[in-house]
Amino acid sequence: MRVEVAIRAEESSETLEIPWESSDPEVRYFDLRGDPRAIARIDAARQHPPLRSFLVAVNSEDSVFTTTRCKTWLQQVAAASGAEACEFGSRIDLVFAPEPFNFQRSRHDNLTQRLQELLSRETAPDALRSELSVRPCRFHAADRLGFCLRILLRARGATSEQAELRWGLGLARIQQALLFISRIVRQQIAQVS
User: Fold this and answer.
1) Which of 20, 79, 129, 138 lies 20 to 30 angstroms, CA to CA, from 96?
2) What is the arithmetic mean of pLDDT over 40-58?
3) Is the peptide bond prior to 19 cis by the omega test (within 30 degrees of 0)?
4) 123 or 30: whose pLDDT is higher?
């Protein structure tokens, strides 16, 4: 998997609000860690089983992360002769479940670096690519600015089905990497306690 890390200055990035609101009651922030059944209200999770599995795993008690927003899309891309013309993609924003970690930029930078190292070991860089970026976040409960990790994942295929299949496999790989990192963070927390 080709992995790119986008370095963005906080001033130039859109600030994610947590919880965020929308005019559509079905398109809004759901605390999946606090209410796992709310996953049934996320349209993209109902339509795409790999996303549902990812959200369940990353918001579980086994994880030190929680998701804040997600979306998927399918698009036709301009392709050279013989190139793959369909792209399936997703955007997932996540934060640390231990709230104090969300106010430490170094925690997010370390997470991004570890995730990049784990994901870069994958093959098929032309078919599957990911972009990781640390973004500014406003946590309303704490009334302060912090950070979140945005994961963009794009997969190309000759057909929409092939692109979505490759995306699902890539998302499963990201899920495994996040859970691996989560175990390490849990061990570090236990050693300090």
Assistant:
1) 129
2) 96
3) yes
4) 30
